[in-house]
Amino acid sequence: MNITVTGASGFFGRHLLPALHCAYGSQVTGISSNDYDLTEPGAVRAMFRDLRPDILVHLAAYVGGIGANRDYPADFFYRNILLSSLLFEGAARYGVRKLIYPMGGCSYPASAASPISEHEIWNGYPQHESAPYSIAKKTGLVASRAYRDQYGLNSIVIIPGNMYGEYDNFDLNGSHVIPGMIRRFYEAKHSGASEVVVWGTGAVLRDFVYAGDVAGAVQYFIEKYDSVEPVNISTGTATSISELAETIARLTEFTGRIVFDHSKPDGQRAKIFDTTRMRSLGLSCPTSLNDGLQRTIHWFAKNYQSRGDGIRLSGKSFV
Asked: How many folded domains does the chain comprise?
């Protein structure tokens, strides 16, 4: 059974590949944009001919923070549409037994009430700033059903929550909330700064999930799941931004003030994922936020000190 993981050099790929190697050994091959440009039809055909995957885990995406999404909305839409379309088509044409496609929780409607169930996915428009990316990724749901109906392709869509962990993007302009906070508090601690400013009121609620837990769930979907119904993969636990900031301050040993800038936007009031379907499959995301943050901060500090290539400083990346 040959398993191919696209986007293996990205944040989630660097969690998933070791987990799959542990389970399946040399049957697993990870590729990145350095190996094949999967927005080019010829490169996609070459990838399928060369690797002949039985199982395809399609992580490859053009990704970035809100700033990058605002600056390059057409790029995010076009490239991610190509990635989804070409890989689903190739998987069907080359006889892939199963395709697993993660789709971010940002594709849910901005107006969806928490806890957000999988049934909400088509009930509104995503957050405006990242909508071109979010909608491009959401087309994977359409492709999953279409290729199953016409070709019998067993394709699975999973929807991870707000993932964090080692190997994340810690660029202050392009990062998500956890890696951005970790870097700010860490640098404030080591520069002797008296305060760290956090955008918004600190009252909004988010559902954070350690990327290693999501990676650990993928084996189940490779071996056991066969349905067009997507599955949320998260903790289902609400954490306020103020609680998150206080926890990161404690773990980075920052003792100054945390200042919330109320003039900055909060975003969606609450975004918590309904994990009923996930738990009905016997799955869970057991890593506590404290433990996951400790691992992430330890990794960040080690790589920050060594100035290794593990800390991504670009606002957008193609993996």
From this structure: 2
From 72, 133, 147, 186, the catalytic residue: 133
Q: For the sheet with 3-6, list strands across it.
A: 28-30, 3-6, 55-58, 98-102, 154-160, 231-233
Question: DSSP assignment, residue 65?
Answer: -
Distance CA 255, CA 106 (A): 33
Q: Using the 8-state DSSP alphabet, how is residue 119 labeled?
A: G
The pLDDT value given to residue 199: 87
How far is the CA of 2 from the CAs of 28, 72, 100, 240, in angstroms? 6, 36, 14, 42
Does the annotation mark 133 as catalytic?
yes
For position 192, which CATH number holds?
3.90.25.10
The reply to whether 27 falls in a domain is yes
pLDDT value for 312: 54
Averages of pLDDT over runs of 10 residues in the chain (319 residues) are 96 97 97 96 98 98 83 95 97 98 94 96 92 96 97 97 94 83 96 94 96 98 96 97 98 97 84 97 98 97 69 54
Residue 197: inside a domain: yes
Boundaries of domain holding 99: 3-163+208-233
Confidence at residue 308, expressed as pLDDT on a 0 to 100 scale: 47
The tokens of 196 are what?
Answer: 């760290």
Secondary structure (3-state) at 300: helix
Distant-in-sequence, close-in-space partners of 212: CB < 8 Å, separation ≥ 6: 15, 19, 165, 287, 292, 295
